[in-house]
Amino acid sequence: MSLTNGSPLSHTLALGREPGMPCVIGTCTVTEVIGFGERLRVDGTDATVEIIARYIHLR
Description:
This protein is α+β, with helices and mostly antiparallel strands. It has two helices and two strands.
């Protein structure tokens, strides 16, 4: 899949680039690693995502 040929991610990438906003796209395993309610630090310049707080559900 090429980002230059109208892939599903090309629109997202273009929207981020126009105002100069770095972005992270195309994370294949995000739903397996990051859970509901967790706090993240996203660095679009370095293309890194860090979990800074895990969600703990107490009953």
